[in-house]
Amino acid sequence: MACCTDRAEAEKTIRSPAVAGSFYNENKKILLKQISEFLSEPCTLYKDSMYEPLVLFAPHAGYEYSGKTAGCAYQALRSTQFDTVILIGPKHSSRIEGAILFGGGNWSSPLGTTETDEDVTKIIADESPEIVYDQAIHDEEHSLETQLPFIQALQPNAQIVPILINDVKFAPILASAIKSAISKSGKKILIIASSDMSHHLHDDITRMRDKITIKAIKSINIRGLQSLIDSGQSELCGAAAVMTALNVLKSMPDSRVTVLRYNTSAESSGDYEKSVGYMGAVGEIARVEGPTKGTSEKKNQLSEEQKNILKIIALKSLHNINKSGDNTEDIDVKDRRLNQHKAVFVTLKDKNGNLRGCIGRILPEEPLWKAVYHMARQAALEDSRFQPVREREIPSLSIEISVLTTPVKVRSHNEIKFPGHGVIVKKYGKSGVYLPQVSEQFATKEEFLDSLCSSKADLDEKCWKDENTEILVFETESF
């Protein structure tokens, strides 16, 4: 067994990033932009209301090589929010026995800090003596860390359970413990199996071998995959993580695996002699009808109390417009949801309903409450279309706050929902955005897009028909 501590002795700590600046960008804004682009990557179309994700299979190489493929896997999470994400991956630098839990504490990345779920961790640990705690084993390992920014971007309210496992013989034991956690915790749980595929072979051989491996994974053929691994015909650095996930899926009455993207490192590096394979896939189970914990649409919505807090913060910002400096130091917001990074727009209108200012951000750059404060101030003072708001106007202003989902690239204007979607157009360095509620001003989608291109992006009004124009859509929760 690896050296370990029991749960009572597991020191609560914050695990700092070990590979920020090498495997992914350490600059928060650049990293957010990268992830947004990965999540907008054209992939195998994923949409089936009869199934929902239980497992993601995602690579863990440097983002320049595997980021697009990981992004395709994570796109499957857009419509479902999870309470807990169980991260399973290999330890690359040393041999370990059993399955190694992180224990208590949090994990950080350039995007912020994510809590570990100690309740689910304990359930898993209590199921077998082969599952132990050792925080130090996790310190320098990248296989789980590379997943964290994607989780923070798409599942900002989720907690995590990090687990390292190398030997496939322990996969059934860990799978059984995870199934117990799913049934006993009452939480909506996602499993992420972190693994790259064939390593440092000629690209043709990499693709040929990975094709056989992917076939076994798609059919949830555990015995067949084990045989391929034993014979050397299949290479998965995270084989034990993949086998654990497949064992959980196999136990479900109606499950399937859909591959969303496959690529090799040669596509980015140009080195076809030493190629590494990457697969992004989703393991799904039949969707349970009726109200199940964590599946309600209302789970993703802000509560009335949270909305009221944001309204008060926006109003406080307006009352501070004549003060210099940030002036947020005296605002104390402890609500976890309001401290998640979110993109937001703030719209101001006068007593006659005329627009008085509207400014926002497309990408999440700071905690939601702070973004509301800053965007309210900028809408009042920095919208170049209007004179700055005067203090005497504030009592008669209406304030609308719009919290945005992550923008998603679409293949053409035909995929835009009108009304319903907010839209971004980008071409030749120019861009423009309309919030979903702007569609109310137009009779047709064509008029809406014409105006977006010409009035907001300063492009030809038919730019939305041009194949060189990038179109992204998003939704908002406005109040």
TrEMBL record:
InterPro entries listed in its UniProt record: AMMECR1, AMMECR1_dom_sf, AMMECR1_domain, AMMECR1_N, AmmeMemoSam_A, MEMO1_fam
Residue ranges annotated for the AMMECR1 domain, each copy included: 296-479
Source superkingdom: Bacteria
PANTHER family: PROTEIN MEMO1
Family statement: Belongs to the MEMO1 family.
Protein name as annotated: AMMECR1 domain-containing protein
